[in-house]
Amino acid sequence: MPIPDAPAPAPADVIVVGGGVVGLATAWRLRAAGASVMVVDPDPGHGAGWAAAGMLAPVGEAHFGEEPLVLLALAAAARWPSFAAELTDETGLPTGLLSTGSLLIGADPSDRASIEDVLAFQRSLGLDAERLTATEARSAEPLLAPSVAGGARFPGDHQVDNRLVLAALRAACGGEGVSFVADRVARVDVEADRVTGVTLEGGATLAGSVVVVAAGSWSGTLGGLPDDVRPPVRPVHGVTLRLRAGDGTPWLGRVVRGLVHGRHCYVVPRADGSLVVGASAEERGFSDAVPARAVHDLLADARTLLPVVDEYELTEATAGLRPTTPDNAPVLGPAGPTGLVLATGHYRNGFLLAPLTADAVAGWVTGAPVPEVARSFGVGRFATGPVPAAP
Ligand code: GLY
What we know:
Elements: E1 12-17, H1 21-32, E2 37-40, H2 48-51, E3 55-56, H3 67-91, E4 102-106, H4 109-124, E5 130-132, H5 134-140, E6 151-154, E7 158-159, H6 162-176, E8 179-181, E9 185-191, E10 194-200, E11 205-213, E12 234-244, E13 255-260, E14 263-269, E15 275-278, H7 292-305, E16 313-324, E17 331-334, E18 340-344, H8 350-366
Parallel strand pairs: 1-2, 1-11, 2-8, 4-13, 11-18
Antiparallel strand pairs: 3-7, 4-6, 5-6, 9-10, 10-11, 12-15, 12-16, 13-14, 14-15, 17-18
Helix pairs in contact: 1-6, 1-8, 3-6, 3-8
Glycine binds at residues 53, 55, 238, 278-279, 322, 348.
């Protein structure tokens, strides 16, 4: 007996391309605002956000030349406590939000000097960053190696458990009636300068009057996007490790970021005593292989700062692809044809920026207020203007 074709899904008000932390948070917010929402992703929650550590680090991730991004990151961090509380209220699920602050520790005097430069920059922006001597650092975190050279404390940089947040967002979306299509989008469909939906890789089409591009590193590869609004996103490969505490192993009390002989790493403790150690950063195209060297370097750097790492059991090494733009800031907002909205390029800050991004997109789509700080991250900032005439 022939198997009848599955009925085509009903047209959505909004199709969200990508079910990572940004896509899921956005879908949840849009649905709560009354839109009918469909998320298209072959494996929601298992992209870069699965590999991530979940640090909410507006200060620790503040870099020279990225002042506009710092303002966005601070505004996003302020939204996290209520976002996490709402997510837990609605689903009964935890997010692992731990407000214990972070340390940045230099392994040797040259690392310490580099941290001093970063501290001067952070303090020039009025960010909450305190210098720590080696003794102060070790009294803040007694598991640090006696050899560390000191560093800094960022009292406002916290963490969530990335995988708990993803599970809670899936549940919240499901509970609100967001529908999921397990497939890849090949193309955004546009007619008469207006979005009409998407075409999937298998050729099926889904109708929708708004398409939100939240496809992480793949956002720039979608067909159908006009060149002048195609987000300039590329993947930056990162490896994280997961480690489990053995019986009687002492637990780390807070996030420790490190500069170890010039190399960056972080060690993030979870509420169950396990650790996430990260992260490498390499340009390797779309490969998600885990290079043995990255595992070696991360373990070597983590145990230089925290010798207790030797007592943990390595349970996982995972690679993720950070969606990165030329200025390391996200691409947000309506662009090009009516109904197209970009929400991508969150690079190292996907979890931190997700609540603010979701509220901004919900505002752009439904007419609700858009956080002012989000408005300066349109794709238009990458446009190359007319070449000025020679003098
Ligand atoms: N935000 C941490 C990382 O990108 O590795």
